[in-house]
Design brief:
Layout: E1 12-19, E2 32-37, H1 40-60, H2 76-92, E3 96-105, H3 113-122, H4 127-137, E4 140-144, E5 154-156, H5 167-174, E6 185-190, E7 193-200, H6 203-224, E8 227-228, E9 234-237, E10 252-254, E11 257-259, E12 265-267, E13 270-272, H7 279-296, H8 308-324, H9 334-352, H10 360-367, H11 372-388, H12 447-459, H13 487-505, H14 528-539, H15 568-574, H16 579-585, H17 602-615, H18 627-631, H19 634-641, H20 644-652
Parallel strand pairs: 1-4
Antiparallel strand pairs: 1-2, 3-7, 3-8, 3-9, 4-5, 6-7, 10-11, 12-13
Helix pairs in contact: 3-4, 7-8, 7-9, 8-9, 9-10, 11-12, 11-13, 16-17
C-alpha cells in the first residue's frame, strides 16, 4: 500500500449473479446484478484504504455535504430527515414544492479509473492513495460463475467491483460533482439515488426549474460516462393539509419521456405521499412484517419448536426492525399505532404461548418485549440523539438545526431557508425550538426543531449543556475530540428512560408482581411447552381453575385436593395432594414471588419443570390422561433446540 500498488494476484475474482428483488420479469439481464467474490486478504486491504481515503475525502472537498450514502456516521434516515425538513420549511414560506427522484443507470459499472484518479489528484490527495486507486481499478479480471459458464477470466477496464469495501466510497467521490446548489431548493443523494427539490410560486414553475437543472445534470454525467435511468424517474408535488387548491397535474418532460406526478413514491425504503401522510408507509411496513411473521411462526408452533428466548430474539432482531423501519423519521398516527400494536401483541403471544385473554400490559412483561408505542418513541429518541451528536460538516440534517442548538461545531448550512418564513404571521410561523407546542396545535415546530426540543426532556434540567458529544469512531483527526458525556452514555440514558416509562405503565403489583425486563427471563431457555406453562401461570391466565381464561363461572377449587382455589401458589407450593411430588422435586423451592431464587437458578428451574410435568400442573384438560406422550420429553425437546445450561450461562455473563 505504501508503494501505491494493489497485488496483481488479488485483482482476479469470480462474479455471481443475484436477482434484483421486486422485478416483474427476470428475462432481461438488467434484472440481475453481478457481485464480485473477492479474496479475504484483498478485502482487508481495501477496508484499510477505505478508512484512510474517507477521512481525506471529507477534508479535501471530494465529498458533497448532501451525500448521505456509504459514508461513516450517515444513513438513509439522515437523507429522509433532511428532505422532509426542507420541504416543510419551504412550505411554511408559502412556496409550492416539488421533488424529482432520479437513479443513476449502471452505477458502479461506469466508474472510469482515469477520471477518478484525476479528481483525487486535483484535490491534493496523497500520491500513494492516488496510485493505489489507479492500481486497484486497473488490470482487473473477472470470471462469471453460472451453470454452463466457460469459467474463463475476462479483462475489466471500467467500473469498480460490487462487493468491495471501498467501491461505494469511490463511486460516491466519482459522482460528487453532480451536486449543485438550487435556489430555494435542494440536491440530495444516497449513493446512486438522487432527489432534486425545487420551490417557487407554482408547480409549473418548479417543472421548468427541474427540466433546466436536469439538462445541466445530464451534461455533467455525460462527461463522467454516467446516465440516469428513465424508467426509475418519479415526480411528486408536495401539498399541505391546509392546501385547498386543486391537485396539480403538471408533468415533467425528460429525454422524450413524460412523467406524471405520483400519489405514492418510494425512496430509500420510505413511502411518501404529497401530504406526507405516514399511514401509507406504515401500512406497507405492517404488511411486510406480517409476511415475515407467517414464515417464522412455523419454526415454533404452540407448545413446541424454538424456545421462547429464541422467539424473543427473532421478534426483536427481525420483526421489529421490519415493522418500525422509518419510525425514526415518521410519526405514526393514533389509528396506525393501534394497528401496529395489535400485530405486536400477536408476536408477544407467539413468543410466550400465552392465551389471547392475557392482558396486554402483562403480556409485554412476560415476553420481555416493551409495548410498541414505547419502542417507537425510544427509536425516535435515538435518531434525534444521533443527529444532535453528529458534526454538522458531516451530517446535512445536523447542519440544519437551529443556530442556538449546541452541536460539535457551530457550522450551519447556507443558505438557510428558515429566513423565508420569517415574514409569516400567526399560525403559519414555525415555533422556536425552545418553546413548547400549544394545546391548540395551530403552530408546530419544524421537523428538525422538534428533535432538540424533545432532548430537553431527556437530558434533564441541564438542557443541552451536555452536548456536543459524538462516538469517537465517527471522527477523523481533523475534528476535535468530544468533551462531556459520551454518545454511548447518552444512548444508555435513553434506554433507561424506556425502562422507566415501561415500569410506570406496568400493572399494579397486587395484580401482577413481576417487573419489566428487556432481557429474556431465564426460564425462557426451557422448551416452549414447559416455559409456556410458567408464562401462563405467572400471567394469571392459564389452565388452573382459579386462573380461567375461557370461562369465569367455572369452579375454582383445585381438582387434586378440592380444598382451596387452584392458584399459581397453591398448585406449586400448597396443594396437599401434590406433596410427594413436591418433596421429590421441589426441596429447594419455597417461594415463587418476583424475587424468589427459582427464577434465576438453572437447577431450581429444572426442578420446577420436572414437578410441573410430573403433576401435570396447568396442562390442557385433554392432556391430563397422557401427559408424557402429549407434552413430550422435556429433555428431548430442549436437546433439539438449545442447551438450557448454555442459555443460563449467557444470561449470567
Amino acid at each position: 500500500m505504501a508503494f501505491g500498488s494493489h497485488p496483481l494476484t488479488l485483482k482476479r475474482a469470480d462474479g455471481i449473479f443475484l436477482d434484483k428483488p421486486g422485478k416483474s420479469s427476470y428475462d432481461s439481464p438488467s434484472s440481475f446484478r453481478v457481485i464480485v467474490l473477492l479474496q479475504t486478504f484483498s478485502k482487508i486491504l481495501e477496508r484499510i484504504m477505505n478508512s484512510r481515503l474517507s477521512c481525506v475525502a471529507r477534508v479535501s472537498g471530494l465529498l458533497n455535504p448532501h451525500q448521505c450514502g456509504s459514508l461513516a456516521g450517515l444513513s438513509a434516515s439522515d437523507a429522509i430527515t433532511t428532505l422532509t425538513h426542507e420541504v416543510r420549511t419551504l412550505q411554511m414560506a408559502q412556496r409550492k414544492v416539488s421533488t424529482l427522484f432520479l437513479d443513476i443507470k449502471g452505477g458502479f459499472d461506469n466508474v472510469n479509473p482515469s477520471t477518478l484518479c484525476g479528481m483525487l489528484k486535483a484535490k491534493g490527495v496523497n500520491p500513494y492513495l492516488v496510485s493505489w486507486t489507479r492500481s486497484f481499478l486497473s488490470g482487473r479480471k473477472c470470471r462469471l460463475r453460472y451453470q454452463g459458464s466457460p469459467m474463463v477470466f475476462a479483462p475489466v477496464s471500467v467500473g469498480t467491483p460490487q462487493g468491495s469495501p471501498i467501491s461505494p466510497l469511490l463511486f460516491v467521490i466519482y459522482v460528487s460533482c453532480l451536486h449543485s446548489e438550487i435556489p430555494e431548493g435542494l440536491t440530495l443523494s444516497y449513493v446512486d439515488d438522487f432527489g432534486l427539490t425545487a420551490s417557487s410560486a407554482s408547480y409549473r414553475r418548479n417543472i421548468q426549474i427541474r427540466q433546466r437543472h436536469y439538462a445541466r445534470l445530464k451534461a455533467k454525467g455525460a462527461r463522467l460516462g454516467v446516465s440516469f435511468s428513465i424508467p426509475k424517474t418519479e415526480l411528486i408535488h408536495w401539498r399541505t393539509n391546509r392546501d385547498r387548491a386543486p391537485v396539480s397535474n403538471a408533468r415533467v418532460h425528460l429525454d422524450g419521456s413524460v412523467f406524471k406526478p405520483k400519489d405514492e413514491v418510494r425512496w430509500l425504503g420510505y413511502w411518501f405521499t404529497p401530504s406526507m401522510s405516514t399511514s401509507t408507509h406504515f401500512t406497507k411496513r405492517l404488511a411486510k412484517a406480517q409476511a415475515a411473521f407467517v414464515a417464522i411462526k412455523r419454526l415454533s408452533p404452540p407448545g413446541m419448536g424454538l424456545p421462547p428466548f429464541l422467539c424473543h430474539r427473532l421478534a426483536s432482531s427481525l420483526l421489529f426492525p421490519i415493522l418500525s423501519y422509518g419510525a425514526d423519521v415518521f410519526t405514526t398516527t393514533y389509528h396506525m399505532t393501534r394497528k401496529l400494536a395489535a400485530f405486536w401483541h400477536q408476536v408477544q403471544r407467539w413468543s410466550t404461548n400465552c392465551f389471547s385473554s392475557t392482558p396486554t400490559d402483562i403480556l409485554a412483561i412476560e415476553a420481555c418485549l416493551p409495548p410498541l408505542d414505547l419502542l417507537l418513541r425510544y427509536k425516535r429518541r435515538l435518531a434525534g440523539l444521533r443527529i444532535l451528536c453528529s458534526p454538522p460538516e458531516i451530517n446535512p440534517a445536523t447542519a440544519r438545526l437551529p443556530p442556538s442548538v449546541e452541536t460539535p461545531s457551530m457550522h450551519r448550512h447556507s443558505p438557510d431557508h428558515r429566513s423565508l418564513s420569517a415574514k409569516n404571521a400567526g399560525s403559519r410561523l414555525p415555533l422556536p425550538w425552545l418553546q413548547p407546542r400549544p394545546p391548540s396545535k395551530n403552530r408546530a415546530h419544524l421537523p428538525l426543531d422538534a428533535l432538540p426540543h424533545s432532548m430537553l426532556f431527556i437530558l434533564g434540567p441541564g438542557g443541552l449543556d451536555l452536548l456536543p458529544v459524538i462516538s469517537q469512531h465517527l471522527l477523523c483527526d481533523t475534528f476535535p475530540a468530544p468533551s462531556g458525556r459520551s454518545y454511548p452514555q447518552l444512548k444508555l440514558l435513553c434506554k433507561n428512560l424506556l425502562v422507566k416509562e415501561w415500569e410506570e405503565a406496568a400493572p399494579d403489583p397486587a395484580r401482577y408482581p413481576y417487573s419489566p425486563s428487556l432481557k429474556p427471563h431465564p426460564f425462557m431457555g426451557l422448551n416452549k411447552f414447559a416455559a409456556g406453562r410458567l408464562h401462563q401461570m405467572r400471567s394469571g391466565k392459564s389452565y388452573l381453575r382459579a386462573q380461567p381464561s375461557w370461562s369465569d363461572d367455572a369452579p375454582t377449587t383445585c381438582p387434586s385436593c378440592e380444598e382451596a382455589p387452584e392458584t399459581f401458589e397453591h398448585a406449586i407450593l400448597r396443594c396437599p395432594a401434590k406433596g410427594p411430588a413436591r418433596d421429590r422435586h421441589l426441596q429447594g423451592v419455597s417461594d415463587i414471588g418476583p424475587d424468589a431464587p427459582v427464577w434465576s437458578s438453572a437447577s431450581l428451574l429444572g426442578a420446577l419443570t420436572q414437578y410441573i410435568r410430573a403433576t401435570t400442573t396447568a396442562f390442557p384438560p385433554g392432556m391430563f390422561s397422557r401427559p408424557s406422550s402429549s407434552a413430550g420429553s422435556i429433555s428431548s425437546q430442549s436437546s433439539n433446540v438449545v442447551s438450557f445450561g448454555n442459555f443460563m450461562s449467557s444470561q449470567e455473563s
